Amino acid sequence: MFGLIGHLTSLEHAQSVARELGYPEYADQGLEFWCSAPPQIVDRIKVTSATGQQIEGLYVESCFLPEMLAGSKIKTAIRKILNAMALAQKNDVDITALGGFSSIIFENFNLSQMSNVRNIQLEFNRFTTGNTHTAYIICRQIEEASRKFGIDLAQATVTVCGATGDIGSAVCRWLDARTNIKDLLLVARNQERLQDLQAQIGRGKVMAIDEALPQSDIIVWVASMAKGMAIDVRTLKRPCILIDGGYPKNMSTLLQEEGIYVIDGGIVEHSLDIDWKIMKIVNMTAPARQLFACFAEAMLLEFEGWHNSFSWGRNQISIENMDKIGDVSIKHGFRPLIS
Ligand code: NDP
Prior knowledge:
By secondary structure, the protein is α/β, with parallel strands linked by helices. It folds into two domains: about 1-130 and about 270-330, no CATH class; about 135-265, Rossmann fold (3-Layer(aba) Sandwich). The protein contains twelve helices and 16 strands. It has helices at about 10-20, 25, 30-35, 75-90, 100-110, 130-150, 165-180, 190-200, 210, 280, 295-305, 320-330; strands at about 1-5, 40-50, 55-60, 95-100, 115, 120, 125-130, 155-160, 185, 205, 220, 240-245, 260-265, 265-270, 290, 335. Strands 10-9-8-11-12-13 form a six-stranded parallel β-sheet, with helices on one face. Strands 2-3-1-4-7 form a five-stranded mixed β-sheet. Helix 7 links the parallel strand 8 (about 155-160) and strand 9 (about 185). The two termini are about 30 Å apart. The model has no long low-confidence stretch (mean pLDDT about 95). The protein binds NADPH dihydro-nicotinamide-adenine-dinucleotide phosphate.
């Protein structure tokens, strides 16, 4: 069985979901209430592969909210992720994806040192970040969107915002190894890590975001921002492809303008309906078929019987593993979403 650990994007989102699901008493509650809420199994899932194989899984809502990353709530955020992992393990899940901020909290706060959760000893090899499949899907989205919207990669300047992150660094390595893009612009806050990445891949210009965006033909957003930022659309080139892979979204507004193409980054569409309810809650356009690539990774590992941490640690994603997960992604009927 596979598992998915997820969370909602904000307190406001959590309140509206509670209202929609018929829990008005939760809808009026503030952050303190969500801080004390335990993780819950909220969905049981059946997935059929394009090959006909069927698997089952469950969805654990961790009750973590990005607002908890502010100041005094960090310990709560850590507790939420560990408790959700313990709940998945207690329910005999073989391989579980740590969705959205779950894996970021795991890495940032070194949760591998905290493997005891009450009477449960967490077995980390039963978890995956899902980031290899996410990076693979974003790279396919770069290829397919550039073809669709008439951008010649050989002439293109590509900015990766969140370049030093787990997904961002994999995308940069792939852009270097597998494409002939003209320029690669690297954006993040920590300058030392940017310099290290530049040295590692042997190319790319480190640049401030305001300077990079107006020069870019393609912008890949994979920064772990708790809240999206506003972009001044007037400063962007036309055409410009924006692939927003953040959860919550890195861009706070949808930029619907002539020549600006916004793609939901790291999202896949399955070729068959999935028997579940959960993607409606995170507002997917086609919730029976569309999902986060990291969740699809747990499904793929279950289909293949690869019950191990396929994606683990930071900045370890190899192009070989992106190819490997990509092959089984196609085999089981997933494809990158190009909207
Ligand atoms: P990491 O924490 O590994 O990396 C985040 C990157 O963003 C770092 O380079 C960080 O560098 C940079 N960053 C953070 N804040 C800012 C900021 N304000 N401005 C510029 N850069 C910033 O994250 P992941 O690679 O694991 O995940 C990236 C995003 O992808 C997250 O939003 C996550 O939720 C989402 N995601 C989506 C998935 C999907 O299936 N679609 C799956 C998994 C993750 P620095 O701190 O130096 O600024």
